[in-house]
Amino acid sequence: MPFITKKLHAPTRQMALTFLINELGISRSEGQRLIARGRLSQNGTVMCDQFGFIEGDCEFICFEPLSRGFKPMFVTNDFAVYDKPSGLSVHPHSRLSPYTLNDEIKHQFGDDANATHRIDQETSGLVLVSKNKKSETVLKKLFSERAITKRYLAMVKGHLQEPLDIREALFRNDHPNLLISMVVKVDPKGKPAHTIIKPLRYFPEHDMTLVEASPLTGRTHQIRVHLFHVKHPIIGDPVYGPEEKDVIRFIKKELSPEERMEIGQSTRLLLHAHSLEFEYENEKYSIVSEKDFIKECFDAMKIL
User: Which of 103, 120, 237, 246 is catalytic?
Assistant: First the structure.
């Protein structure tokens, strides 16, 4: 488990923030962030006030990365790119989350390294990682300004013959019900979303089409929802397509691989972040996944 509890000791009465700065060798802003997140406690009481005082034994919850030897496919002095498998989360969802890509990022490049964008746990493919705070600022700005071109591959149901230019607003309801809050819908009152879909190859024996998807905006589940909306859902999508009862069972992690196969024709979502193109410090980069996505699709669909 990446999050562990460490026993610390403040020998004299002092401000909690000062104690963390000196004890952990961190910056003031990092200490403020950790206290705000409830990482420091004493006698079972969480210390939330950075100006509060602490003395004696206390407990600190820290993140200690757990490496499994998963290496990036591309590395420079300032950033790296991982080719993430389906099923691996980029970040932990809570302190109880098991191994995530964040473990490898921190283990290999240090505490200042961070993923600069996210892809779904179910989606495989390229994740761009900054190795320091400077490159993190630059790369996140490139993403926010749409200066990074992202292309995905997806295997969809049916025969898609012509390119599609999908401009449909997407709405996500901030609701305490997990199902309602997770599912994104095409809705005029949502945020503008734009996706270009290009068919690449049709497999008539399985009535499915390999497509390239280029999201020109960055909405949650954008490619998945847009393809579902045009009646070509991504094969293996556990949320957009199955009956509500099965979606709930997926969210609760109650579906076995066999049941997923029966419901969605695949043991995973057949969506892959295939390429990234951008310019960084006057140098152009075009990074392409090395994975054989068609083979991965056939494997997940149990097709020989």
Answer: 120
Q: Is 197 exposed, middle or buried (0-12, 13-18, 19+ CB in 10 A)?
A: buried
Which pLDDT tens digit goes with each residue over 35-74?
888 889 898 888 888 788 988 999 888 777 889 999 999 9
Split into its structural domains, the chain has a count of: 3
Of 149, 147, 89, 94, the residue nearest 115 (C-alpha): 89
Active site annotation includes 120: yes
* 138 and 157 both lie in a single domain: no
Q: Is residue 45 part of a domain?
A: yes
Q: What is the CATH number of the domain that holds 122?
A: 3.30.70.580
Confidence (pTM): 0.84
